[in-house]
Amino acid sequence: MDRIMAIARKHQLMVIEDCAHAVETEYRGIKAGTFGDFGCFSFYVTKNVVAGEGGMIVGRDAELVARARTLALHGMSKDAWHRFSDKGYKHYQVVECGFKYNMMDLQAAIGLHQLARVEQNWLRRRALWEMYGQALSGLPLVLPTPPEPQTRHALHLYTVRIGNTGTSPDRDTFLDNMNALGIGTGVHYQSVAEHPYYRERFGWDPDQWPNARAIGQQTVSLPISSRLTDSELQRVAEAVTQALAC
């Protein structure tokens, strides 16, 4: 981020941070989303703060934040909360062409209550992360790289690499084996160039990015959630051992 911000300052560029998975993330004591001009967080059902859908934008410039609010609701000058209040109806105006990007009040309320548990949930995921490292060490797979110094990792996904040691099944066979053992897994993610749209639209060839392709074909995400129990994690670890042996 230091290098990115230096380039942005030199060329007078705006920096918008994609913080979809990074509510807890810090770099040198600075929260993700607060380095640049805007930070964008996701509260989709697969994230660490869940509201069902929607997200949050944070920003430094009050005028730009106000414009983002306007754009999120059809370009209207007042949202429903301010149009229909105890003080009576207030007229609104459409001040520019906007979008239907507003979050439901119910979703926002759910999200607000979860903010109080962000630290508690992160500490639980950290404990699970360490337990995985102990349980899976010595198996023919690659464990996640430790976080860099002065960095607080969100610990959002626990990803391992399968099939690159020569002594284990390929990734997709491993996925099938885990499914047969009743354990859900994920892939985060295939390389962009492997998706048909990008190949057809831009003529991209996955072979142009062999490292990204290799990681995309080997990566597996194991279950990790603050609700996961120690015994459930142990069951996952035992299933991984069995799936690698098949």
UniProtKB/TrEMBL annotation:
<keyword id="KW-0663">Pyridoxal phosphate</keyword>
<protein>
    <submittedName>
        <fullName>DegT/DnrJ/EryC1/StrS aminotransferase family protein</fullName>
    </submittedName>
</protein>
<dbReference type="InterPro" id="IPR015424">
    <property type="entry name" value="PyrdxlP-dep_Trfase"/>
</dbReference>
<dbReference type="GO" id="GO:0008483">
    <property type="term" value="F:transaminase activity"/>
</dbReference>
<dbReference type="InterPro" id="IPR000653">
    <property type="entry name" value="DegT/StrS_aminotransferase"/>
</dbReference>
<dbReference type="GO" id="GO:0000271">
    <property type="term" value="P:polysaccharide biosynthetic process"/>
</dbReference>
<dbReference type="GO" id="GO:0030170">
    <property type="term" value="F:pyridoxal phosphate binding"/>
</dbReference>
<comment type="similarity">
    <text>Belongs to the DegT/DnrJ/EryC1 family.</text>
</comment>
<dbReference type="InterPro" id="IPR015422">
    <property type="entry name" value="PyrdxlP-dep_Trfase_small"/>
</dbReference>
<dbReference type="Pfam" id="PF01041">
    <property type="entry name" value="DegT_DnrJ_EryC1"/>
</dbReference>
<keyword id="KW-0032">Aminotransferase</keyword>
<keyword id="KW-0808">Transferase</keyword>
<dbReference type="InterPro" id="IPR015421">
    <property type="entry name" value="PyrdxlP-dep_Trfase_major"/>
</dbReference>
